[in-house]
Structures are given as C-alpha cells and as structure tokens.
C-alpha cells in the first residue's frame, strides 16, 4: 500500500461497481458464461460481455488481469466459489479482468471471502517449508544436567 501511494496509485480497494468483467466459458457447459456474467452483475460488478475460451476443459477457474489490475482481479476471484486463481497476462484485455470458468466452478458469491483466503497467482512460486525438521541422533548417549551433584539453592 505504501509503494502504491508513492507511485501515484490509489490505495483504496475497488468496489465491484468499479470493475469491468468479461466472462469466458472454459468448460463448454451451455450458457455458463452468460449465467456467471449475470450473477457477477447481481453482485455489483459491471459486466461487459461473454464468450467462449480458446479451449474447453479448463480445470481451474481463473481471473486474468494486466499489471495494475491486481486488486480488481482479487476482488472478482473472492466472489467466485471456489476462489479463482489469478492469472497475470500481457494484455490488452477487453475489460479490467476476464473470468475463464473452469470445471471447478460452483457459483458466484454475493459477499466475497476475506482476502486471507484468496488463491495465489498461477505463476509458479517457490515457498519454503516452515515445518520444523529434525535429524535423528546417531548416538544414544545421555547428558547430565549442567549442575548435577550440586545442592539446590533457595532464592
């Protein structure tokens, strides 16, 4: 948010009415893009068209966006069930974001899930495990407490 301010971008999150959405059918299910577009409009988004994706059989629903439209894409993704994957594209796009429905698509939510439950972008990311690791000990020796043999002191 701070860098956005220095770059002259607004730090306020967009509202659904601020986001222009096109919906593409990625599953081949008849009427799916139209139905999703209508549901997004009912949730307050500005829908600008529907169509078919370049291919059917898309596994995961995605929200395509260009650089600078990440907040709009995330807002749309949080309205989809399950939360859609964000897909940065070079553009240009015919809308602020383009939803491509996938086989996992269930519905459009009236109220978005909290931002902490969003799906990361489809670009590969490297994450490190935060789980502690342990190395088995190669010896079975025991150690004595540091003050073994001393009498306890009272405080």
Features:
155 residues, alpha/beta, five-stranded mixed sheet, two-stranded antiparallel ribbon, 3 helices, 7 strands, globular, disordered N terminus
Can you tell me about this structure?
Helices cover 17% and strands 19% of the residues. With 155 residues, it is an alpha/beta fold. The strands form two sheets. The protein has a five-stranded mixed sheet with strand order 2-1-6-3-5, covered by helices on one side. It has a two-stranded antiparallel ribbon with strand order 4-7. The longest helix has 11 residues, at 32-42. The N and C termini lie far apart (52 Å).
In terms of topology, how is this protein built?
Elements lengths: L1 H5 L13 E6 L6 H11 L3 E7 L9 E4 L4 H10 E2 L3 E4 L8 E4 L6 E2 L47
Parallel strand pairs: 1-2, 1-6, 3-5
Antiparallel strand pairs: 3-6, 4-7
Distance between the termini: 52 Å
Q: Spans with pLDDT under 50 lasting ≥5 residues? A: 1-10, 123-148
SSE arrangement, N to C: HEHEEHEEEE
Q: What does the largest sheet look like? A: 5 strands, mixed
Q: What is the number of helices?
A: 3
Give the strand content. 15-25%
Structural class: alpha/beta
Radius of gyration: 25 Å
> What is the average of the pLDDT values?
79
> Into which percent range does the helicity of residues fall?
10-25%
- What general outline do the C-alpha atoms trace? globular
Strand order of the largest sheet: 2-1-6-3-5
């Amino acid at each position: 948010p701070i860098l956005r301010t220095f770059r002259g971008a607004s730090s306020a999150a967009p509202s659904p009415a601020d986001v222009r959405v096109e919906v593409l059918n990625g599953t081949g299910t008849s009427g799916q893009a139209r139905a999703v577009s209508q549901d997004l409009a009912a949730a307050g988004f500005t829908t600008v068209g529907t169509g078919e994706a370049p291919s059917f059989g898309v596994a995961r629903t995605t929200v395509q966006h260009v650089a600078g439209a990440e907040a709009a894409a995330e807002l749309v993704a949080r309205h989809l069930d399950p939360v859609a994957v964000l897909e940065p594209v070079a553009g240009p796009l015919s809308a602020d974001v383009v939803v491509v429905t996938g086989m996992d698509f269930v519905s459009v939510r009236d109220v978005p899930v909290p931002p902490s439950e969003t799906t990361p972008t489809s670009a590969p990311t490297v994450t490190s495990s935060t789980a502690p690791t342990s190395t088995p000990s190669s010896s079975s020796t025991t150690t004595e407490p540091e003050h073994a043999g001393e009498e306890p002191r009272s405080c």
